[in-house]
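Hey, I was hoping to borrow your eyes for a little while. There's a protein on my desk that I can't quite get my head around. The fold is given in discrete form, as structure tokens running alongside the sequence. I'd be grateful if you could look everything over and explain what you see. Here's the protein in full, and shout if anything looks odd to you:
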Amino acid sequence: MSKLTALALSIAVLGGVWAFLALGPLAGSVLVWAGFIAWGCYFHTGGDNAALQKTIVGMIYGAVIAGIALALVVTNPVSLPPAIAAPVYIAVTVFFLVIVAGINLLSVVPANVYGYAATAGYALSTNTAASYGAMNLTNPTLIVALSVIFGAVFGLLSGKLAGVLGK
């Protein structure tokens, strides 16, 4: 079997398992789509152990920075005018997605951005922005972080399975 066929088959099988888990027993704890973003990030980052680390750390870092942005937008601690509050807070927090790229585990800027975007998108589409500090699964940062871990690990597993199938 070709390497491409083996990878396609392993991702198909494990993608079905991930979807079953995320939409079934783990529903409400993880997001199927955020896991697939992490899965793709794992492969575009190199598909190895370093990629696993950089995907998980970078995407969770991005999720945390998005959580900070949500907190700033919701609370507006410096009382910015409403028309510019969100853009200013977003600009300030997005700066921190890139400036850390000199740190090895945060050097994959797209991973940082994926985590930020997934968290902000989820919070805005589900009206959970105000749950930025909750210590439960209403917190968009937490639910994205869990999804990232699962998705990146499924990426690693699909690569290993493809290696076995391709022999």
